[in-house]
Amino acid sequence: MALVPASGADLDTLRVGTVLCDPEYPVQAATSFLAQILTLDLAVPLTLGFQAVMYVQSVQEAVVLSRLLCTVNKSSGEVLKKKPRAIPRHTTAVVQVTCQRRVCVEAFGECKALGRFTLREGGLTIAAGT
Asked: Which of 60, 40, 49 is nearest to 97 (CA)?
């Protein structure tokens, strides 16, 4: 834990999930982003338009899978199938995630804490992503 003086910040406006950053190096906030996910034990495969709750750090946000780009080999990164109709359990895939509100996210290589998330549905974790 680090204590950082936040000059000019109204402490009453800071909430869970608030990200403070250097103005010269702002954190990216997006309503839509590409992500690589690994599906876990799914009852049904993930399909286009699938709705879930995304957890990034302490923030939870309703999301939709707006594009299913491809499935990939977890070890080599080789594309196995482009534009799959569904993503079954224990599969690595590249998808577009669309949020209702802007969420602070970064590429995993830039910031590990803001570069990973989980997707949950019905109280179960269904996928993890970067």
From this structure: 49
For residue 18, being part of any structural domain is answered with no
pLDDT above 60 for 109: yes
CATH of the domain at 50: 2.40.30.10
Segment 62-80 mean pLDDT: 97
Task: Give me the phi and psi of 4, to 5 degrees please.
Answer: -125, 125
Q: Are 108 and 116 in contact (CB under 8 A)?
A: yes
Give the chain's mean pLDDT: 88
- Domain annotation covers residue 39: yes
Burial tier of 107 (Cβ tally within 10 Å: 0-12, 13-18, 19+): middle
Assess whether pLDDT exceeds 80 at residue 23. no
